[in-house]
Amino acid sequence: INIGGGSPDILSSSIERLLDSLTTLPGYTKKTEISIEFSLYSISDEFMNAIDKFDITKVSFGVQTLQPDIRKSLRMPEKLRKMDEICERLSRKIPIVNVDLMTGLPGQTLNSALHDVMFFISHPHINSISSYVFSQGSAPAFIADILSHKVPEPPSQETHASIRLHTYTLLLKNGWNRYGTCTYLDKKKISQDQLEKIAGNECLGAHAYEDYLIGVGSSAISYFPGLRLENISDYNQWMSAINRGALPYNLDKSSIDDQLDMALWGFPLQFRGLSHSNFIKMKERQIITEKQLKTFNEYIEEGLIHLNNNNTYELTITGEIFMGHLVKKLKKEEDQKTIDNYINEGRKIGELIASGKIKKTHNINNRQLDLLKKENPYDITRFNSYLLRDHFYRVNPARTINGSGPESGKQLWNRGRKSFSMGKCHGLGHSGTHILFRSIPNRSGH
Asked: Cα(223)–Cα(1) distance, rounded to whole angstroms?
Protein backbone atom coordinates (compact mmCIF):
# COMPACT_ATOMS: atom_id res chain seq x y z
CA ILE A 1 0.00 0.00 0.00
CA ASN A 2 1.45 3.34 -1.04
CA ILE A 3 -0.19 6.65 -0.20
CA GLY A 4 1.58 9.36 -2.08
CA GLY A 5 2.62 10.86 -5.30
CA GLY A 6 1.80 14.20 -3.72
CA SER A 7 1.27 15.51 -0.22
CA PRO A 8 -1.19 13.24 1.62
CA ASP A 9 -0.16 14.92 4.86
CA ILE A 10 -2.63 17.71 3.99
CA LEU A 11 -5.29 15.23 5.18
CA SER A 12 -3.95 15.93 8.68
CA SER A 13 -5.67 13.67 11.25
CA SER A 14 -8.13 12.43 8.57
CA ILE A 15 -5.38 10.11 7.32
CA GLU A 16 -6.54 7.87 10.17
CA ARG A 17 -9.90 7.26 8.43
CA LEU A 18 -8.09 6.25 5.24
CA LEU A 19 -5.68 3.92 7.01
CA ASP A 20 -8.55 2.37 8.99
CA SER A 21 -10.22 1.44 5.69
CA LEU A 22 -7.05 0.18 3.99
CA THR A 23 -5.94 -2.02 6.88
CA THR A 24 -9.30 -3.82 6.89
CA LEU A 25 -9.11 -4.78 3.21
CA PRO A 26 -9.02 -8.54 2.47
CA GLY A 27 -5.42 -9.66 2.11
CA TYR A 28 -3.92 -7.09 4.47
CA THR A 29 -1.64 -8.64 7.08
CA LYS A 30 1.12 -7.47 9.42
CA LYS A 31 3.51 -8.34 6.57
CA THR A 32 1.92 -5.79 4.23
CA GLU A 33 4.14 -2.83 3.41
CA ILE A 34 2.52 0.57 3.97
CA SER A 35 4.45 3.57 2.73
CA ILE A 36 3.30 7.18 3.01
CA GLU A 37 4.73 10.32 1.43
CA PHE A 38 4.71 13.76 2.98
CA SER A 39 5.95 17.28 2.38
CA LEU A 40 8.24 19.09 4.79
CA TYR A 41 6.20 22.24 4.20
CA SER A 42 2.75 20.93 5.13
CA ILE A 43 3.25 18.04 7.57
CA SER A 44 1.57 18.58 10.94
CA ASP A 45 1.67 17.07 14.43
CA GLU A 46 -1.90 15.85 13.87
CA PHE A 47 -0.81 13.87 10.81
CA MET A 48 2.21 12.35 12.58
CA ASN A 49 0.13 11.43 15.65
CA ALA A 50 -2.44 9.72 13.43
CA ILE A 51 0.02 7.54 11.48
CA ASP A 52 1.73 6.55 14.74
CA LYS A 53 -1.33 4.41 15.48
CA PHE A 54 -0.62 2.11 12.50
CA ASP A 55 2.09 -0.31 11.46
CA ILE A 56 3.66 2.00 8.86
CA THR A 57 6.70 0.57 7.09
CA LYS A 58 8.11 3.67 5.44
CA VAL A 59 7.64 7.41 5.17
CA SER A 60 9.16 9.35 2.29
CA PHE A 61 9.68 13.00 1.46
CA GLY A 62 11.16 14.84 -1.50
CA VAL A 63 14.19 17.08 -1.31
CA GLN A 64 15.50 16.63 -4.90
CA THR A 65 18.61 18.69 -4.06
CA LEU A 66 20.10 20.65 -1.18
CA GLN A 67 21.72 23.23 -3.47
CA PRO A 68 19.98 26.64 -2.95
CA ASP A 69 20.66 27.92 -6.47
CA ILE A 70 19.18 24.82 -8.12
CA ARG A 71 16.19 24.86 -5.76
CA LYS A 72 15.58 28.49 -6.63
CA SER A 73 15.63 27.80 -10.38
CA LEU A 74 13.05 25.04 -9.80
CA ARG A 75 10.89 27.45 -7.77
CA MET A 76 11.36 25.38 -4.62
CA PRO A 77 11.90 26.94 -1.17
CA GLU A 78 15.62 27.49 -0.73
CA LYS A 79 15.58 26.24 2.87
CA LEU A 80 14.35 22.90 4.20
CA ARG A 81 12.16 23.79 7.13
CA LYS A 82 12.51 21.64 10.27
CA MET A 83 13.81 18.65 8.26
CA ASP A 84 16.00 17.22 11.06
CA GLU A 85 13.31 17.69 13.69
CA ILE A 86 10.60 16.02 11.55
CA CYS A 87 12.83 13.07 10.58
CA GLU A 88 13.79 12.48 14.21
CA ARG A 89 10.13 12.56 15.26
CA LEU A 90 9.02 10.10 12.57
CA SER A 91 11.92 7.69 13.09
CA ARG A 92 10.78 6.97 16.67
CA LYS A 93 7.88 4.84 15.43
CA ILE A 94 8.48 4.24 11.71
CA PRO A 95 11.35 1.89 10.76
CA ILE A 96 12.25 3.40 7.37
CA VAL A 97 12.60 7.12 6.63
CA ASN A 98 13.32 7.78 2.96
CA VAL A 99 14.46 10.90 1.12
CA ASP A 100 13.97 11.44 -2.61
CA LEU A 101 16.83 13.02 -4.58
CA MET A 102 17.09 13.77 -8.30
CA THR A 103 19.85 13.92 -10.87
CA GLY A 104 19.84 15.81 -14.15
CA LEU A 105 18.65 19.08 -12.60
CA PRO A 106 19.56 22.44 -14.18
CA GLY A 107 23.01 23.58 -13.14
CA GLN A 108 23.77 20.34 -11.30
CA THR A 109 27.37 19.11 -11.20
CA LEU A 110 28.94 15.85 -10.13
CA ASN A 111 30.25 17.43 -6.93
CA SER A 112 26.94 19.01 -5.96
CA ALA A 113 25.02 15.77 -6.58
CA LEU A 114 27.45 13.68 -4.52
CA HIS A 115 27.37 16.26 -1.73
CA ASP A 116 23.60 15.72 -1.48
CA VAL A 117 23.96 11.93 -1.36
CA MET A 118 26.73 11.99 1.25
CA PHE A 119 24.76 14.39 3.44
CA PHE A 120 21.89 11.91 3.71
CA ILE A 121 24.13 8.85 4.01
CA SER A 122 25.50 10.53 7.14
CA HIS A 123 22.12 11.75 8.41
CA PRO A 124 21.26 10.09 11.76
CA HIS A 125 17.56 9.61 10.96
CA ILE A 126 17.65 8.70 7.24
CA ASN A 127 18.14 5.05 6.31
CA SER A 128 16.72 5.02 2.78
CA ILE A 129 17.66 7.13 -0.27
CA SER A 130 15.89 7.19 -3.63
CA SER A 131 17.77 8.80 -6.52
CA TYR A 132 15.58 9.45 -9.54
CA VAL A 133 16.34 10.81 -12.99
CA PHE A 134 14.75 14.19 -13.61
CA SER A 135 12.72 13.49 -16.74
CA GLN A 136 12.26 16.60 -18.84
CA GLY A 137 9.57 14.80 -20.82
CA SER A 138 7.35 14.74 -17.74
CA ALA A 139 7.89 18.43 -16.97
CA PRO A 140 6.75 20.60 -19.92
CA ALA A 141 6.99 23.77 -17.82
CA PHE A 142 10.67 23.04 -17.23
CA ILE A 143 11.25 22.49 -20.96
CA ALA A 144 9.64 25.88 -21.58
CA ASP A 145 11.99 27.52 -19.08
CA ILE A 146 15.03 25.97 -20.79
CA LEU A 147 13.85 27.08 -24.24
CA SER A 148 13.24 30.58 -22.83
CA HIS A 149 16.69 30.58 -21.13
CA LYS A 150 15.09 31.19 -17.72
CA VAL A 151 17.00 28.35 -16.04
CA PRO A 152 20.52 26.94 -16.52
CA GLU A 153 21.04 24.04 -18.90
CA PRO A 154 20.83 20.55 -17.35
CA PRO A 155 23.99 18.40 -17.33
CA SER A 156 25.09 16.81 -20.60
CA GLN A 157 24.26 13.13 -21.08
CA GLU A 158 27.88 12.20 -20.35
CA THR A 159 27.95 14.21 -17.12
CA HIS A 160 24.56 12.86 -16.08
CA ALA A 161 25.70 9.26 -16.65
CA SER A 162 28.76 10.00 -14.49
CA ILE A 163 26.52 11.42 -11.74
CA ARG A 164 24.36 8.26 -11.78
CA LEU A 165 27.42 6.00 -11.66
CA HIS A 166 29.04 7.83 -8.74
CA THR A 167 25.72 8.04 -6.86
CA TYR A 168 25.30 4.25 -6.90
CA THR A 169 28.94 3.47 -6.14
CA LEU A 170 28.96 5.95 -3.24
CA LEU A 171 25.94 4.23 -1.73
CA LEU A 172 27.49 0.79 -2.21
CA LYS A 173 30.83 1.84 -0.71
CA ASN A 174 28.97 2.94 2.41
CA GLY A 175 27.24 -0.43 2.78
CA TRP A 176 23.84 0.51 1.33
CA ASN A 177 21.95 -1.97 -0.90
CA ARG A 178 19.39 -1.65 -3.66
CA TYR A 179 15.87 -2.37 -2.37
CA GLY A 180 13.69 -0.75 -5.01
CA THR A 181 13.63 0.72 -8.49
CA CYS A 182 16.00 3.56 -7.62
CA THR A 183 16.13 3.10 -3.84
CA TYR A 184 19.01 2.05 -1.60
CA LEU A 185 18.65 1.14 2.09
CA ASP A 186 21.12 1.05 4.97
CA LYS A 187 20.46 -2.55 6.05
CA LYS A 188 22.44 -2.06 9.25
CA LYS A 189 19.70 0.25 10.54
CA ILE A 190 16.67 -1.83 9.48
CA SER A 191 15.44 -5.14 10.91
CA GLN A 192 15.11 -8.20 8.70
CA ASP A 193 11.35 -8.32 9.32
CA GLN A 194 10.96 -4.86 7.83
CA LEU A 195 13.27 -5.62 4.90
CA GLU A 196 11.12 -8.62 3.97
CA LYS A 197 8.07 -6.35 3.68
CA ILE A 198 9.65 -4.19 0.98
CA ALA A 199 7.80 -4.72 -2.30
CA GLY A 200 10.39 -2.69 -4.18
CA ASN A 201 7.99 -1.06 -6.61
CA GLU A 202 8.05 2.51 -5.36
CA CYS A 203 7.59 3.68 -8.95
CA LEU A 204 4.09 2.22 -8.68
CA GLY A 205 4.14 0.21 -11.88
CA ALA A 206 3.27 -3.40 -12.51
CA HIS A 207 6.38 -5.48 -13.18
CA ALA A 208 4.74 -8.60 -14.58
CA TYR A 209 1.63 -9.38 -16.61
CA GLU A 210 0.00 -11.15 -13.63
CA ASP A 211 0.36 -8.12 -11.33
CA TYR A 212 -2.65 -6.31 -9.91
CA LEU A 213 -2.29 -2.66 -8.95
CA ILE A 214 -5.27 -0.54 -7.92
CA GLY A 215 -4.67 3.19 -8.33
CA VAL A 216 -7.04 5.59 -6.59
CA GLY A 217 -7.06 9.36 -7.01
CA SER A 218 -6.29 11.84 -9.77
CA SER A 219 -3.35 10.78 -11.97
CA ALA A 220 -3.32 7.28 -10.46
CA ILE A 221 -2.69 4.28 -12.72
CA SER A 222 -4.18 0.82 -12.28
CA TYR A 223 -2.89 -2.41 -13.82
CA PHE A 224 -4.67 -5.72 -14.25
CA PRO A 225 -3.72 -8.59 -16.57
CA GLY A 226 -4.35 -7.17 -20.05
CA LEU A 227 -5.64 -3.81 -18.83
CA ARG A 228 -4.06 -0.46 -17.94
CA LEU A 229 -6.28 2.33 -16.66
CA GLU A 230 -5.06 5.88 -16.12
CA ASN A 231 -7.16 8.28 -14.09
CA ILE A 232 -7.85 11.87 -15.10
CA SER A 233 -4.98 14.08 -13.95
CA ASP A 234 -6.78 17.38 -13.68
CA TYR A 235 -8.00 17.47 -10.10
CA ASN A 236 -11.20 19.44 -10.78
CA GLN A 237 -12.21 17.14 -13.64
CA TRP A 238 -11.45 14.10 -11.48
CA MET A 239 -13.56 15.43 -8.59
CA SER A 240 -16.38 16.26 -10.99
CA ALA A 241 -16.38 12.68 -12.30
CA ILE A 242 -16.38 11.26 -8.76
CA ASN A 243 -19.26 13.51 -7.69
CA ARG A 244 -21.28 12.41 -10.73
CA GLY A 245 -20.63 8.76 -9.92
CA ALA A 246 -18.66 8.38 -13.16
CA LEU A 247 -15.50 6.36 -13.60
CA PRO A 248 -12.70 8.96 -13.63
CA TYR A 249 -10.59 7.41 -16.40
CA ASN A 250 -8.63 9.14 -19.13
CA LEU A 251 -9.39 6.68 -21.90
CA ASP A 252 -6.83 8.26 -24.26
CA LYS A 253 -4.10 7.08 -21.91
CA SER A 254 -5.64 3.70 -21.06
CA SER A 255 -4.93 0.44 -22.83
CA ILE A 256 -6.26 -3.10 -23.22
CA ASP A 257 -3.06 -4.51 -24.69
CA ASP A 258 -2.05 -7.98 -23.51
CA GLN A 259 1.56 -7.19 -22.60
CA LEU A 260 2.57 -10.73 -21.73
CA ASP A 261 6.23 -9.71 -22.11
CA MET A 262 6.03 -7.26 -19.19
CA ALA A 263 8.26 -9.39 -16.98
CA LEU A 264 11.07 -8.97 -19.53
CA TRP A 265 11.08 -5.19 -19.97
CA GLY A 266 9.82 -4.51 -16.46
CA PHE A 267 12.57 -6.44 -14.67
CA PRO A 268 15.13 -3.57 -14.69
CA LEU A 269 12.70 -1.67 -12.42
CA GLN A 270 12.47 -4.59 -9.98
CA PHE A 271 15.39 -5.03 -7.60
CA ARG A 272 14.67 -8.75 -7.27
CA GLY A 273 15.43 -9.22 -10.97
CA LEU A 274 14.13 -11.80 -13.43
CA SER A 275 14.53 -15.49 -12.68
CA HIS A 276 16.22 -17.56 -15.37
CA SER A 277 13.35 -20.07 -15.25
CA ASN A 278 10.79 -17.34 -15.94
CA PHE A 279 12.89 -16.07 -18.82
CA ILE A 280 13.02 -19.57 -20.35
CA LYS A 281 9.25 -19.94 -19.99
CA MET A 282 8.69 -16.70 -21.93
CA LYS A 283 11.02 -17.94 -24.66
CA GLU A 284 9.30 -21.32 -24.91
CA ARG A 285 5.84 -19.72 -25.04
CA GLN A 286 7.14 -17.35 -27.74
CA ILE A 287 6.01 -14.37 -25.69
CA ILE A 288 9.18 -12.47 -26.56
CA THR A 289 10.22 -11.75 -30.13
CA GLU A 290 13.54 -12.57 -31.76
CA LYS A 291 14.36 -8.85 -31.71
CA GLN A 292 13.72 -8.65 -27.94
CA LEU A 293 15.81 -11.76 -27.35
CA LYS A 294 18.67 -10.32 -29.43
CA THR A 295 18.54 -7.04 -27.48
CA PHE A 296 18.54 -8.90 -24.14
CA ASN A 297 21.61 -10.94 -25.11
CA GLU A 298 23.39 -7.82 -26.37
CA TYR A 299 22.89 -6.18 -22.96
CA ILE A 300 24.42 -9.23 -21.29
CA GLU A 301 27.43 -9.02 -23.61
CA GLU A 302 27.77 -5.29 -22.91
CA GLY A 303 27.81 -5.87 -19.15
CA LEU A 304 24.47 -4.17 -18.44
CA ILE A 305 22.74 -7.38 -17.29
CA HIS A 306 24.24 -10.43 -15.61
CA LEU A 307 23.07 -13.76 -14.20
CA ASN A 308 23.81 -13.87 -10.46
CA ASN A 309 24.52 -16.83 -8.17
CA ASN A 310 20.80 -17.25 -7.48
CA ASN A 311 20.19 -17.92 -11.18
CA THR A 312 18.46 -14.55 -11.52
CA TYR A 313 19.10 -11.85 -14.11
CA GLU A 314 19.79 -8.47 -12.55
CA LEU A 315 21.21 -5.13 -13.60
CA THR A 316 24.86 -4.34 -13.10
CA ILE A 317 25.73 -0.86 -11.79
CA THR A 318 26.22 0.23 -15.41
CA GLY A 319 22.80 -1.23 -16.20
CA GLU A 320 21.25 0.82 -13.40
CA ILE A 321 22.67 4.00 -14.94
CA PHE A 322 20.80 3.32 -18.19
CA MET A 323 17.76 1.66 -16.57
CA GLY A 324 15.15 3.69 -18.46
CA HIS A 325 16.88 3.05 -21.78
CA LEU A 326 16.90 -0.71 -21.11
CA VAL A 327 13.19 -0.74 -20.23
CA LYS A 328 12.35 1.03 -23.48
CA LYS A 329 14.58 -1.05 -25.76
CA LEU A 330 13.41 -4.37 -24.27
CA LYS A 331 9.85 -3.53 -25.30
CA LYS A 332 8.35 -4.44 -28.63
CA GLU A 333 8.79 -1.76 -31.29
CA GLU A 334 5.17 -0.60 -31.20
CA ASP A 335 5.40 -0.17 -27.41
CA GLN A 336 8.61 1.82 -27.75
CA LYS A 337 6.68 4.33 -29.82
CA THR A 338 4.36 4.92 -26.85
CA ILE A 339 7.32 6.11 -24.77
CA ASP A 340 8.52 8.31 -27.62
CA ASN A 341 5.04 9.81 -27.93
CA TYR A 342 5.00 10.55 -24.18
CA ILE A 343 8.33 12.40 -24.39
CA ASN A 344 7.34 14.22 -27.59
CA GLU A 345 4.04 15.27 -26.03
CA GLY A 346 5.89 16.92 -23.14
CA ARG A 347 8.27 18.60 -25.55
CA LYS A 348 5.38 19.90 -27.67
CA ILE A 349 3.60 21.38 -24.65
CA GLY A 350 6.88 22.99 -23.54
CA GLU A 351 7.30 24.58 -26.97
CA LEU A 352 3.75 25.92 -26.88
CA ILE A 353 4.43 27.55 -23.50
CA ALA A 354 7.74 29.04 -24.65
CA SER A 355 6.08 30.46 -27.77
CA GLY A 356 3.33 32.06 -25.70
CA LYS A 357 0.54 30.05 -27.36
CA ILE A 358 -0.60 28.61 -24.03
CA LYS A 359 -0.18 29.83 -20.47
CA LYS A 360 2.00 28.06 -17.95
CA THR A 361 -0.10 26.77 -15.07
CA HIS A 362 0.26 24.05 -12.49
CA ASN A 363 -1.91 21.76 -14.65
CA ILE A 364 0.63 21.94 -17.49
CA ASN A 365 2.57 19.06 -15.96
CA ASN A 366 -0.50 16.84 -15.69
CA ARG A 367 0.37 15.12 -18.97
CA GLN A 368 -3.12 15.45 -20.42
CA LEU A 369 -3.77 15.80 -24.13
CA ASP A 370 -6.32 18.62 -23.79
CA LEU A 371 -3.77 21.31 -24.60
CA LEU A 372 -2.67 19.54 -27.75
CA LYS A 373 -6.26 18.91 -28.77
CA LYS A 374 -6.89 22.65 -28.57
CA GLU A 375 -3.81 23.25 -30.69
CA ASN A 376 -5.00 20.74 -33.32
CA PRO A 377 -8.61 19.65 -32.70
CA TYR A 378 -8.52 17.27 -35.67
CA ASP A 379 -5.88 15.03 -34.07
CA ILE A 380 -7.21 11.76 -32.71
CA THR A 381 -5.29 9.44 -30.43
CA ARG A 382 -4.52 6.17 -32.14
CA PHE A 383 -5.66 3.02 -30.38
CA ASN A 384 -5.39 -0.66 -31.13
CA SER A 385 -8.67 -1.24 -32.92
CA TYR A 386 -8.11 -4.95 -33.32
CA LEU A 387 -7.81 -5.60 -29.60
CA LEU A 388 -10.76 -3.35 -28.92
CA ARG A 389 -12.77 -5.14 -31.60
CA ASP A 390 -11.95 -8.61 -30.23
CA HIS A 391 -12.88 -7.48 -26.71
CA PHE A 392 -16.14 -6.04 -28.07
CA TYR A 393 -17.00 -9.35 -29.74
CA ARG A 394 -16.51 -11.23 -26.48
CA VAL A 395 -18.62 -8.99 -24.25
CA ASN A 396 -21.48 -8.35 -26.68
CA PRO A 397 -23.62 -11.46 -27.27
CA ALA A 398 -26.29 -11.52 -29.96
CA ARG A 399 -29.14 -9.16 -29.05
CA THR A 400 -32.06 -7.30 -30.60
CA ILE A 401 -31.50 -3.75 -31.81
CA ASN A 402 -34.56 -1.49 -32.18
CA GLY A 403 -36.78 -4.52 -32.84
CA SER A 404 -34.93 -5.34 -36.06
CA GLY A 405 -33.80 -8.81 -35.03
CA PRO A 406 -30.76 -10.26 -33.31
CA GLU A 407 -27.43 -8.57 -33.92
CA SER A 408 -24.12 -10.13 -32.94
CA GLY A 409 -21.19 -8.34 -31.37
CA LYS A 410 -19.45 -8.54 -34.74
CA GLN A 411 -22.39 -6.96 -36.56
CA LEU A 412 -22.70 -4.27 -33.90
CA TRP A 413 -18.99 -3.47 -34.20
CA ASN A 414 -19.12 -3.24 -37.99
CA ARG A 415 -22.20 -1.02 -37.86
CA GLY A 416 -20.48 1.26 -35.37
CA ARG A 417 -17.23 1.29 -37.35
CA LYS A 418 -19.09 2.26 -40.53
CA SER A 419 -20.90 5.08 -38.75
CA PHE A 420 -17.65 6.19 -37.11
CA SER A 421 -15.82 6.35 -40.44
CA MET A 422 -18.65 8.56 -41.75
CA GLY A 423 -18.24 10.92 -38.78
CA LYS A 424 -21.69 10.08 -37.40
CA CYS A 425 -20.95 7.84 -34.42
CA HIS A 426 -20.76 9.38 -30.96
CA GLY A 427 -20.93 6.20 -28.92
CA LEU A 428 -22.03 2.60 -28.67
CA GLY A 429 -22.62 0.50 -25.64
CA HIS A 430 -24.88 -1.87 -23.80
CA SER A 431 -25.24 -3.09 -20.25
CA GLY A 432 -22.05 -2.40 -18.30
CA THR A 433 -19.80 -2.25 -21.34
CA HIS A 434 -19.41 1.11 -23.05
CA ILE A 435 -17.22 1.78 -26.05
CA LEU A 436 -16.64 5.48 -26.62
CA PHE A 437 -15.70 6.79 -30.05
CA ARG A 438 -14.43 10.35 -30.17
CA SER A 439 -16.25 12.13 -32.97
CA ILE A 440 -14.19 14.20 -35.39
CA PRO A 441 -15.74 17.60 -36.20
CA ASN A 442 -16.60 18.15 -39.82
CA ARG A 443 -16.50 21.50 -41.58
CA SER A 444 -19.89 22.53 -40.22
CA GLY A 445 -18.63 21.84 -36.71
CA HIS A 446 -20.78 18.75 -36.09
From this structure: 14
